[in-house]
Amino acid sequence: MAIFVCSKFIKSVIQGFLPGIALKLFLIFLPTILMIMSKFEGYVSLSSLERSAASKYYLFNFVNVFLGSIIAGSAFEQLNSFLKQSANKIPETIGVAIPLKATFFITYIMVDGWAGIAGEILMLKPLILYHLKNFFLVKTEKDREEAMDPGSLGFNTGEPRIQLYFLLGLVYASVTPVLLPFIIIFFGFSYVVFRHQIINVYNQEYESGAAFWPDVHFRIIVALITSQVLLMGLLSTKGSAEATPVIIVLPILTIWFHRFCKGRYESAFVKYPLQEAMMKDTLERAREPHLNLKGYLQNAYVHPIFKASEDDDEDDEVVSEKWETESTLVPTKRQSRRNTPLPSKVSGNSSPTLPGGV
Predict the structure, then answer these.
(1) Is residue 163 a part of any domain in this protein?
(2) Does residue 206 have a pLDDT over 90?
(3) Which of 54, 352, 42, 79 is nearest to 218 (CA)?
(4) Which keywords describe this protein according to UniProt (predicted)?
C-alpha cells in the first residue's frame, strides 16, 4: 500500500511539476541557445548576433505564445484539423478563436508584462549576483566595480517581447478593445522604466548606427498584416462577407508600403552611415576641390601588381594614407549626431558628450 501511494505521488509530481519546470528552464536558456545558433550561422559582431537572435526569439513568441495560445489543443490535433480543411478556412478558424482568448492575454500581459517591468526596476538577479561576488570574489576596488557592472540592455530578448505586445494590441484593437488599456499601461510603464535604465543603469556595449531598425520595421509590418488577415477571418464568420473585399486592400497596401520603405530607406541603415559620408564629402570639397574622383576610383581597388607604374602606386598610397589618417572635420550646418551624456564603458571617449550636458 505504501509503495502504491509513493509511486502515485511520484507520478503526480512528474506529470504536474516537471513539465512546467522543464519549460521554465528552457525559456531561461533560450536566449543563450539562440545566440549560439546565430554564431553558427557566421555572425561575428555583437550587434549582428543580437539582431539575428531577436528575429528567432520573436518567431518563437509569435508561434508559441500567440498562435499556440489562440489555437487551443495539442499541436498534432490542430495539425490534423488543418490538413483536413481547405487553406482558406485557416484564417476563419483562427479568427473565431481570437475573441475567446482575450481574457488569457489580459492575464498574460499583467503577469508577464507588468511583472516583468517591476522586475526590471528591482533587478533581483544582478543584485543577488553582486552580493555573492562581493562576498566570495571581491578583493580590490576593481573587482568591486566589475561585480557592480549591470551589463547592457538585452535587445535580443527585450525588443521581441515588446513587439509581441504591439502585435496583441493591433490584433485586439478591433476585436476586443477592452484589452487595449492593459497594453497602454504596459507601454507607459515600459517607457518610463527603460528610459531610466538606459540613461542611468545599463552600459552601452556597441553603437550599430540604428542597424536594428529595419528588423523592427519588418516585424511591425508582419504584425499589421497578421491583424488584417485575422480580422478578415473573423468578419467572414459574422456574416460580413461583403466587407472582406474591402479589407483585402489593406494587406496589399501594407506590403507596398514596406517595399517602398525598404527600397527608399534601408540602405541608410545597412551601408555606410550617411552622416559620415556627408563629412567625407565636405572634407573632400574643402581640401581637394580639384580632385579627379573618377580617376582616383578607377584604380583604387586594383591590386598593386596590376597597376601601371611605381609612381602611381606611391601616389595611391599617399592619397590612401591621407584619407585614413585625416582627423580634421569641416563643420557643417546640420548636427545630427546625438549621444548619451557620458561615454559608454566600452566605447570610451569615442562618443563625445552633447553640448551643455544634455
Answers:
(1) yes
(2) no
(3) 54
(4) Membrane, Transmembrane, Transmembrane helix
